[in-house]
Amino acid sequence: MIDPAPFDAAPFDPAPFDTALFDTVLFDLDGTLSDSAPGILGCLRQAFDELGVPWPDEAVARSLLGPPFWHTLPPLVGADRTERAIEIYREHYVVGGGMFQTRAYDGVAPLLQSLRSQSVRLAVATSKPEIHAGTIVEHLGFSEHFDFVCGDTLDGARDSKALVIAEALNRMGDPPAGTVLMVGDRSHDVLGAAANGLHSVGVLWGYGSATELHNAGAAAVIERPAQLNELLRP
């Protein structure tokens, strides 16, 4: 299975995990806000078929959900064909409508509404191209909850979660690290947060595992959205 951890690895010397201090929360998109696996994997498989590349087994395919394709696809399609694979994938994902094959996880909408009602600032930080992420957040009906939707550029200039989070923090006025929490389902969310001096909470309803999230250094791992509200506002 492809391990995304090395792409965002960085030393981390955090302040104490004091949940009372957090007034800003960054959310990953795929696997955290919504289940987008059918659209992503379906379109990616079409790209593999068009390139004549064998589709990997289920475990490897699932490991592609979350980390940037710029890093995870070269071992499977070859470095020389990665850009073309992404182009074909996007043709199916955007033009073919694969991006709308997603649904919000149960409990996420009430969580966002509750945090907003408590004046918590919210933003999306995703490795998905920002132009696509904004459309999906709107499709899910979540736009009103988020100050910003931040993602990668189409050419991969922000090709790690660490860079995406840094850009999101910049747009939010660089709040103190101890007041910002990252929430995501994969190790690269946790490591990207750590690279920016942030704590993170891992979620188990997405595509990662408790072992992956704990090993990456998540301060807490939760099983349902309501637990985040309980954690932040006990």
TrEMBL record:
Organism taxonomic ancestry: Bacteria, Bacillati, Actinomycetota, Actinomycetes, Jatrophihabitantales
Alphabetized InterPro entries for the sequence: HAD-like_hydrolase_sf, HAD-like_sf, HAD_2, HAD_sf, PGP-like_dom2
Organism: Jatrophihabitans telluris
UniProt-listed Pfam families: HAD_2 (PF13419)
Protein name stated in the entry: HAD hydrolase-like protein
